[in-house]
Amino acid sequence: MNGKGYESNPILDKLPKHLIQYIKPQNYETYTPINQAVWRYVMRKNVAYLSKVAHKSYLEGLRKTGISIDNIPNMYGMNRILKDLGWAAVAVDGFIPPAAFMEFQAYNVLVIASDIRQLENIAYTPAPDIIHEGAGHAPIIGNPEYSAYLRRFGEIGCKAISSAKDFELYEAVRHLSIIKEARGTALEEIEKAEKHIEFLQENMGEPSEMALIRNLHWWTVEYGLIGTVKDPKIYGAGLLSSIGESQWCMTDEVKKLPYSLEAARTSFDITKPQPQLFVTPDFAFLSQVLEDFTNTMALRRGGLSGLQKLITSKELGTIELSTGLQVSGNFETLIEHDGKPIYFQTKGKSALAYREKELVGQDINQHETGFGSPIGRLKGINIPIEDMSPRDLKAYKIYEGEVVSLDFTGGINVTGKIVTGTRNLQGRIILITFENCKVTHNNKIIFESNNELYNMAIGEEIVSAYHGPADLKSFDLLDHTLSKVSINYDITNLNELESYYKLIRDFREGKNTIISRTKVFQEIQQKYPLDWLLPIEIYELAVKSADKALTDSIKIHLETIKQNQPNLGQLIDDGLELASTEIETTA
């Protein structure tokens, strides 16, 4: 352990601090016997069913990652096995911001919400939990092509530009996931939260890049099918971890569509089963569609629209100019001319970088209140400044000690005394520093320096715009406080029902074989007549020992529960069927 609550390794050691802030201890000892029983039921059901309908990588991945059917996976044990696949896993604080989630993937780190769904939500929960993350995502990364896609998706996805509405929706979904799994939450409160999400989803306006790429993530990583439309297999983690939806998605009620870029424009509702799914022919095709989507992003297109996206997002972002100079900050305003930006301005702390490394003397202390600069060509001069050789610069008097007046196309003028210039590794000038400088647009003053120096960015155009800073070290990105609402229980003080679950679990594992299963069942039947999962666990043991009297009694009891709670019928029937099925405990 490293004092941070998790066991590190060479992959996790590469994580930047702003991602480490989301990691929390797994606290394996807080999983209760009912938690373990929920895991075991879902995994037994999944493996029995998914062996027929999941992509072959699923069962192979369970073996590769060492995920047991009988026990909730321990993160430390998973990491020892995942490292051979080039990956690692960490426990995180439930839903984390989409950009952070994807950035973890870019570092080959699988984020796992270590909480586990309640028994009442055993079939499906909107909350990320260890069943969804550990048993859904982890096994498929054993496939090299899919693993490469997941990493690449993270690398690109964390650069997608968000909108303020994206964050509002994220907060609403996170809230729903917390209250739905918290014990004692009133049904009215859950319904209110679901309606709020529905309202937000219907009023998002033009989707941001993050919204679009989250759609791609949903229809592939979470709810993807692979193969042919007529004979698809499951690989999406949301389907692999949902014992209800993994069956329903294979029926004709769910429309199957060939996967394409159209998936980016297909929204989803996290609170409902999906009415349609997309089928990719193979994992390599996922990467092809991802590259096609990336070609539409400001990351590759830059320009006026990219700068406008950053301004709309109101979040920390970066533009890269054609010289390679990178400007990071909260972009506030721009001036355009003939469909091109000719001036930009950030607000608050900003920093300049080149090739993701901050330029010396161009940090947030130097640019504490913002950074603004013209971009484009000088009026009447065919050669852009960035392409000028030292001789060209001297000829145009863009030279140390010269007092100049530079007229840019579009009406921007910069006057002042040149102090120095900064060049990139190719020798092209990327920054010119002035003193006694004044910047105007059509004779209106934009900036005027007194004693401070003015740095003018050099670049004919914006070639890239993306979320986040160029150099992660330039900004303090530590703003996340771990939630205190995680669903942990004190197993040193088990309630009576939990104690019964532990008795049966210990019996099955050979730790305590002198108990009477019949007596335990009778006490459960009397004291906890609505509990259905423990009777199924006892039924499984009775089947193995050929105790017909006990199996018959349990079946009669479970029929009574089904009559009183029809919604449990399928779960109970499946549990009875599983009890007679031999399933390897390590898949």
Number of helices: 21
The gyration radius over C-alpha positions equals 29 Å
| Number of E-type strands | 17
* CATH fold-type name of the largest domain: Phenylalanine Hydroxylase
Poorly predicted runs of 5 or more residues: 485-490
Task: Report how far apart the termini are.
Answer: 30 Å
User: What is the mean predicted local confidence, pLDDT?
Assistant: 90
Q: What class, by secondary structure content?
A: alpha+beta
CATH class identity of the largest domain: Mainly Alpha
Task: Indicate the CATH architecture of the largest domain.
Answer: Orthogonal Bundle
Overall domain count: 3
Main sheet? 6 strands, antiparallel
Name the CATH homologous superfamily of the largest domain. Aromatic amino acid hydroxylase
- Overall form: elongated
Tell me the strand percentage band.
15-25%
- Helix fraction? 25-40%
GO biological process, one term: aromatic amino acid metabolic process
GO molecular function, one term: iron ion binding
Keywords: Iron, Metal-binding, Monooxygenase, Oxidoreductase
Protein name: Phenylalanine-4-hydroxylase
